[in-house]
Amino acid sequence: NQIATKFMELTQDIVPNWLIATPDPSVAVGHLCEPFKVEMVIRGYLSGHASREYALGKREICGVTMAEGLKENDKFPEPLITPTTKADNGEHDADISREAILSKGIVSEEDYIVLEKYTRALFQRGTEIAASRGLILVDTKYEFGKTKDGQIVLIDEIHTPDSSRYFYAEGYQERQNNGEEQKQLSKEFVRRWLIENGFQGQEGQQIPEMTDAYIETVSDRYIELYENIIGEKFVKADISNINERIEKNVVAYLASNK
Question: Fewest CB within a 10 Å sphere: which of 35, 137, 178, 208?
């Protein structure tokens, strides 16, 4: 939540967003929006899902052509927008092309042009911020919605490990040249852990239980990303009584904004 809040603040000059206030480190207050039924994924590098598709011999993803001769984690000549459907609870997002989105009437062409414009602007800003911190913004996704007065705004979160993959810039090219795995900050390690423990989100599969030690590792990764990308020391909030803390902060916020 704190990473997303920072990036909302750092990008509000180029793309309007839903955020109004964060009265507590775990709470965000925002405008009520009607979400678009697509997620705008943008990829600067051949990584993650795109890389897995490429390894299967596919050279097109979401109607967008990927060049021949690439290897995992190579940079694309230009960032690719590869949207997905926004699935209902319990279902999986699915790749979809721009053409299919428009032909099925999921998003109007007028609105989709705005979504593409905002997606590229946010990715460019995120790339610049990451570079200033010694990181590479590899890929990410953005979600958008409309306010009650019809304004298109960025919703949900932005540039956190939940939606984004980062590489460390130092040593990136050397690792690529040597065919080594990139040092990254993302939730990919959690995804791999789940796969290794027999869970791929398929029907009938049970989510494996994470140990307290592994959960602590996940928390440490998020803190590492916060400190690297934001450039500030992460200060843990008081967790002695989380519910009481949240209630106190939210009540105080509501009282001051009557």
Answer: 178
